[in-house]
Specification:
By secondary structure, this protein is mainly α. The chain is built from 3 helices and no strands. Helix 1 crosses helix 3. It starts with a helix and ends in a 12-residue tail after the last helix.
């Protein structure tokens, strides 16, 4: 995947973030913010997998 394609993929994920994640990324509570950061990371990772591919820990 090229750099412009990666940037487009990240932008697509960020525009689809639910409101609770947007809110939680900006709170002072470290645990709440960490949960939101992990959710964003999971969404980005999922968007980079080829269609139909499962994550290593997914149960079929």
């Amino acid at each position: 995947m090229t750099q412009p394609q990666l940037a487009q993929q990240f932008t697509h994920v960020l525009t689809r973030l639910p409101q609770w994640i947007r809110h939680d990324l900006n709170v002072k509570d470290d645990l709440v913010r960490l949960r939101a950061e992990e959710a964003v990371a999971a969404m980005i990772a999922a968007s980079l997998r080829p269609n139909g591919a499962n994550a290593p820990g997914d149960i079929a």
